[in-house]
Amino acid sequence: MIAERGLKRAHNRLSYRERQVLAKVAKGLTSKAIGLHLCIAPKTADNHIATILDKLGAKNRAEAVVKGIKARAITVASDGRVVIGVGILEVRP
What we know:
The chain has 93 residues and is mainly α.
C-alpha cells in the first residue's frame, strides 16, 4: 500500500513532457528516436529519462515503464498502443 501511494505521488510529479517521453520509452524507442518524434535533442530525451527514473525510483527504462503503468502515468492497450494517463482504450475488431 505505501509503495503504491508513493507511485501515485510520483505520477503526479511527472510533467506532461516526461509522460510523453515515458510513453515513447514504452514503445521501445531510443533516445535519438524519441528526440525525432518529440522535436528535442537526444541529450534532452536522456535528461528527461534520467528524471523519470529518479522520480519513479526505477533502475532502468524497463522498470520505469512498469512503474509508470502501475502509477497510471501511461496505459498500454492490448494492441500495443500507448497513451498518456489513464485513457479508456477501446480495442475494436
